[in-house]
Design brief:
By secondary structure, the chain is of the alpha+beta class. 50% of the residues lie in helices and 10% in strands. It folds into two domains: 92 residues, Glutaredoxin, CATH 3.40.30; 139 residues, Glutathione S-transferase Yfyf (Class Pi), Chain A, domain 2 (Up-down Bundle), CATH 1.20.1050. It comes from Gymnopus androsaceus JB14.
Length: 248
């Protein structure tokens, strides 16, 4: 069985982290059995070292950075960190399951993810990350999250990233335009990035939308606004991925 490592939070057993959502969607889409191990932020590095996961980056001080999502597949003895590498591994190791990267789409999906990361993510992250410690994290993770995310973004505190009230409408409009640029890559009425079938690119978008939903709530004005954009494209997407949202 596969073990998926995810971040714990105030709501037990409720995922919220967008990066881990990518892998959770991927596992559910493929129909692969797995279990979730929930970790507080300070426990990630010790656990990753224990299971033999490779660091995925470096901290501001140059030391190795260990992150999740990470999976351990006991059928092969393989440990992999990073959602893209995990998706590629799952496609290769379980070829009879639905493909996250259908033949001929790898380069296209890579370009799409680059566009997503450069254009949309820097805008939308400000509406997620600032309130994560207060709204989603347990006390044991708050100090770690504040310290390391402040270093990551080069700010004294996460409050420096907060969008001022008077600028919120303008910033949300930028987010809408960025989503619009992604939507423009498809025909009207499409749900999936690749047209008629889900792919990893869809789970990249859905993961950020899931994080926004966790942060703002499904009854919020912010969520209602996003779901109305671009002819309901993102509402269709979230309805379509609901079947891949199980928490095992």
């Amino acid at each position: 069985m596969i073990t998926l490592y995810d971040f714990d939070g105030k709501a037990k057993g409720v995922p919220w982290n967008p990066n881990v959502w990518k892998t959770r969607y991927s596992l559910n889409y493929k129909g692969l059995p797995y279990k979730t191990v929930w970790l507080e932020y300070p426990d990630v590095e010790p656990m990753m070292k224990k299971i033999g996961a490779a660091p995925t980056s470096k901290k501001a001080d140059g030391s190795p950075l260990y992150t999740i999502p990470t999976i351990y597949d006991d059928s092969t003895g393989t440990v992999i960190a990073d959602s893209v590498l995990i998706a590629e591994y799952l496609d290769e190791t379980y070829p009879s399951t639905p493909k996250l990267f259908p033949p001929g789409t790898h380069a296209l999906q890579g370009a799409f993810q680059q566009l997503f990361s450069s254009m949309l993510l820097p805008l939308v992250i400000k509406f997620i990350i600032v309130d994560v410690p207060l709204m989603l994290l347990n006390p044991g993770s708050v100090e770690y999250f504040n310290k390391h995310r402040s270093e990551q973004f080069g700010v004294p505190t996460l409050e420096a990233l907060r969008v001022p009230p008077e600028a919120k409408d303008a910033e949300w409009h930028k987010v809408k335009d960025a989503f619009g640029a992604l939507n423009a890559l498809n025909k009207d009425g499409d749900t999936w990035v690749m047209g008629d079938t889900p792919s990893f690119a869809d789970f990249v978008i859905a993961s950020v939308l899931a994080a926004l939903k966790s942060m703002h709530g499904k009854e919020s004005a912010e969520w209602t606004r996003i779901m109305s954009w671009h002819g309901g494209r993102w509402e269709r997407l979230m309805m379509a991925v609901e079947k891949y949202s199980a928490v095992l």
